[in-house]
UniProtKB/TrEMBL annotation:
The gene is ruvB. This is Holliday junction branch migration complex subunit RuvB. Residues 19-199 are annotated as: Large ATPase domain (RuvB-L). It comes from the Bacteria. Mg(2+) binds at T84. Homohexamer. Forms an RuvA(8)-RuvB(12)-Holliday junction (HJ) complex. HJ DNA is sandwiched between 2 RuvA tetramers; dsDNA enters through RuvA and exits via RuvB. An RuvB hexamer assembles on each DNA strand where it exits the tetramer. Each RuvB hexamer is contacted by two RuvA subunits (via domain III) on 2 adjacent RuvB subunits; this complex drives branch migration. In the full resolvosome a probable DNA-RuvA(4)-RuvB(12)-RuvC(2) complex forms which resolves the HJ. Residues 69-203 form the AAA+ ATPase domain.
Amino acid sequence: MNWDDSTPDLADDAPVPTDGRLVGASADGEDQAVEAALRPKSLDEFVGQERVREQLDLVLKAALARGATADHVLLSGAPGLGKTTLSMIIASEMKAPIRITSGPAIQHAGDLAAILSSLHEGEVLFLDEIHRMSRPAEEMLYMAMEDFRVDVIVGKGPGATAIPLELPPFTLVGATTRAGLLPPPLRDRFGFTGHMEFYAPIELERVLHRSARLLDVEIDAEGAAEIAGRSRGTPRIANRLLRRVRDYAQVKADGVINVEIAAAALKVYEVDHRGLDRLDRAVLQALLKLFGGGPVGLSTLAVAVGEERETVEEVAEPFLVREGLLARTPRGRIATPAAWSHLGLTPPQHSPGASGQPGLFGA
């Protein structure tokens, strides 16, 4: 690592881009501020993830009893399940400050060295999307996590000298949506690994009732159940839908959210009873109506819906596959019988994948 490397201003991390969807994975502006206000402040307030909460509670209480910093923590799972919230709770439970950055912001080893060298003893460093960190920074992190030390390279070429820099004990909390991309040496250095599961509807109802109280919104049990059933098992999406339904209830009704108001509001925002939005249905409709259910290549499907290949693959497909509406095969994407049923269409005799014939539509 060389101190000549450019280092980012840690106070001005670039905002995460959004995809503009009501059920998108990221929030911006006012939405981020509201989501921050809705975050639980302790493990007792945190809803769901019972196993991870119980295990994490033991890790933190044991560290406090020893008077030591907590082991490094790795949290994996889909966006919106509470990884950032848990990192803040870890800092709160340990009564320590937290520093927040992300893997894409660390492009050089010098970026990471600047962060690590400014940490105080016991501080929590939250590294979001840790799998997207550069390889040189990743290799520096190995020594920092294990020995609380980094080697600073001064000079260049044959005259370069490595100067060891001691670091105060700290807790690294890494979050990733793709744990499989983390190299084993990095995974092995985390003392605790927690995988965040999707939420059951009844858990999302608890999340919604808590958020409604904080937002001073009146919602009944049926209204909460209606929103929870369309939230893709994700608290972040549930809270976002709640805010949009609240807007509808304030403008079109008396401000109280019941099942009729929730259903009417989500119809306006194009979120159907299974949680599919405009993009999800566009992908299914193209696959069924234009390509007879497939198989069809991803690029062809993306052109058909007017979106980038990455948008279809990373934003729409994971949920459609999880819902059993779409399948990825070596020959391309195919619709399942459930997809035909969901859109109220009758599959042709040569239903996708049933004949075993090669696909007609290229990748």
